[in-house]
Amino acid sequence: MSFAIEKHLKLSCKVGFMRLAVVVSSKDPAGMNVKKHLGKEEHTLTGEFEGQSVLKFPDFSLYTIGDFCIYAEHLDKKIEADLIIFATTHRSKENVPALTCHFVGNWAEAKIGGRPKTLGYAPAELLKKAYLSLKKNSVPGYETTIESTHHGPELDIPCIFMEIGSTEKEWNDPAAGEAMASAILETIRMEISPQRAALALGGPHYGNSFMRVMDRSDIAIGHLCPKHMLHHLDENMLKQAIDKIEGCKLILLDWKGLGQEKERITSLLEGIPLEVLRTDKI
């Protein structure tokens, strides 16, 4: 058994008694907005971390860190957690108001945190819960979306980013802060039927075709490698992605969204002992 798979199995065994942490940054207006609304829930204070009070809730702890969350490298070694939800800002060129979620890691270079060609642990059911919770608690005028895997930090436990975008107006919007806080609580507490975990390949940064699949099936998305990063997907990265998605059963393709990489990706997937499905056939 490889070290990566053995480590992954050990992690899976923890899930039944998981210690959950929500993490925000004092530098991040969206995170502080979410913290304000989470703070309305019943909680106690349990010491300090980086000079900030740690808030203890019945089913999670809330930590405030001094640096931006994307640079919280190995935070899992400093706090008591088996899974972390980072509540942060989201930025986009189009400045579209949005509530988003995604897993962490880098398909190639590490431009904003993490390590090059290193992916985080990605329990697909968690992303589906986050996505469904964001949809349920959506704010009028805001899009709800999943994003492809990108940026750090590097951790040895699963984590997910849940973000408010995309400008200062939205980051400080009380309605968005309340919606995100509610979505985080629902993500933590939601129970859903067993899901088929999938690695998603192709399409744009925002996984529209993959969201449609999650809306109408029992498939949950783990890591998402978008079209513009497919040329970095080699045999090693493919294996790593599958290993890091807990119980990965499927490879899900945005067929049109594979672009010029279609033939190479199809060849790369030959011999992989997983079912391969197209989003347009589901």
Strand line-up in the sheet with most strands: 2-3-4-1-5-10-6-9
Strand content: 25-35%
CATH homologous superfamily classification: AF0625-like
Q: Give the overall shape.
A: globular
**CATH structural fold name:** Aminopeptidase
Average pLDDT number: 93
What's the SSE pattern? HEHEEEEEEEHEEHHEHEHEHE
Please tell me the CATH architecture by its name: 3-Layer(aba) Sandwich
How many discrete structural domains? Answer: 1
Structural class: alpha/beta
Distance between the termini: 34 Å
Number of strands: 14
Task: Characterize the largest beta sheet: strand count, sense, and whether it forms a barrel.
Answer: 8 strands, mixed
Helix proportion range? 25-40%
User: What is the number of helical segments per DSSP (H or I, 4+ residues)?
Assistant: 8
CATH class: Alpha Beta
Radius of gyration: 18 Å
Unreliable stretches (pLDDT < 50, length at least 5) are: 1-17
